[in-house]
Amino acid sequence: MKKIVFMMAFVAIGLAATAQTLNVQSAAQDMRRGYLNKAKAAIDKACVHEATKNDAKTWYYAGLIYTQIGGEQSNPKSKFKGLDPDWLTKAKDAAFRCKELDTEKEYADKIIEVFTYVGNEYLNMAVTAFQAQQWDNVMSNCEQAIQIFNEAGNKKFVGEAYLLAGKAAMNAQNNEAIQKYFKPLVRTRTKENLVYKTLFRLYLTDKDTNAALKLAQNYTKAAPEDYNANMMMAEAYMLKGDMEKGNEEIQKALKTAEGNPQVHAQLLAAAGATMESAKNFEGAEASYKQSIAEEPNQFLANYGLGKMLYNHGIDKLDAVNALPLEDEEGATRLTNECLDLWRQAIPYFNNAIAYIDKLDAETQSYNRSNLFACLGALKNVYARLEMYDELKAINARMDALQAAASQN
Question: Which of 265, 276, 316, 340 has the smallest set of CB atoms within 10 Å of its CB?
Fold first, then answer.
């Protein structure tokens, strides 16, 4: 009698297991027929039952069903909209559980479809958050996307998620996060100029010229055809005091741009700025002037040269203040040198302002800070040179710009 009872119990367990296996099959069939509510109910039971919860197949279909539920959420007329608000997390968890249980790799290729769908959803959410300027949400969604796309082996989308997260970190002014998201891109040899340029400036802010040089070297390896990489190398070398190698890199960049006159002129202006930061003022002036000769109608070289001459004038005034009171001759000489430098700066500032004035209204708004910098420098110059008519005009324009800005 006991034996019969035991056998009946065994049969009951077997039937229960079969029923749960049928639940998985039923869920798959209902999913294919579009009955997502029935498919969800069946797969949910299978996911918690002892007979099927440790089967990779169960979780594979769970992932598929929940991604299809997710696909219905953007359709306002779908009867399955709102079927499960937590569909994304459940689809993600199902994909990871399937991969964990799939020791025979039976679903290794198939589950990539679920990972990719889920990863794309997180990346789309990150893009939406970026447009709404919700920088923390961008970064958190990108981190989910990075993890999931790594599981799917999709390195392209991993890179896109890192880049978007890094841009959000830039907007949030979170330097630690910028490095967290941009450094992996450097390791994968991205060609994105923004990545290298941003990290380079951070290293220079930290006065880490060794890290800056190493980064520039990585840039040239990743994008040997990019003249921006050579310019970065030039700046790194010059900041370390190696003017010869710095000039070599500038010449490489200029040679790359020989077929594009506009870019060539811009590179000469950038070279001027690089030499100026390295205290090579003679070389900077020559580079700025060559740039202007090639392209007179530009902002960078005109403003760069005007600013450098203006700052040299400031240096002369500082030197006057450091002189003994009785050295009137030295003070007069330095003051005259200052005023002469400022006279030289005037046409370059005016050319830079004229360039901005010719831009469309939207582009002008982006250059408002540059315009104010030029006007502010000219204001000081005109005041010291007693050019009162010009000073009056500058003051009127600055007042008008400030009034317009306060109304926006």
Answer: 340
In angstroms, rounded to a whole number, what is the distance separating the alpha carbons of residues 25 and 46?
Answer: 10
Mean per-residue pLDDT for 186-198? 96
Q: Are 349 and 373 in contact (CB under 8 A)?
A: no
Question: What number of CA atoms fall less than 13 Å from residue 245's CA on the CB side?
Answer: 12
Quick count: other Cβ atoms within 10 Å of Cβ 126?
A: 25
* Interior angle at CA 338, CA 332 and CA 341, nearest 5: 140
Task: For residue 57, give the nearest of 79, 84, 28, 30 by alpha carbon.
Answer: 28
As given in the structure block, the two tokens for residue 112 are: 């990539």
Summarize the confidence of residues 221-243 as an average pLDDT.
92
- Tens digit of pLDDT for each residue in 274-310? 999 888 899 999 999 999 999 999 999 999 999 999 9
Amino acid letter for position 204: L
Give CATH superfamily name and number for 193-290.
Tetratricopeptide repeat domain (1.25.40.10)
- Is 44 buried (19+), middle (13-18) or exposed (0-12) by CB count in 10 A? middle
What DSSP letter does each residue of 298-366 carry, written as one string? -SHHHHHHHHHHHHHHHHHHHHHHHS-TT-HHHHHHHHHHHHHHHHHHHHHHHHHHHHHHTS-HHHHHH
Q: What is the dihedral of CA 316, 322, 323, 329, to 10 degrees?
A: 20
- The helix (run of H) or strand (run of E) holding residue 47 is helix 36-48
pLDDT at position 9 over 60: no
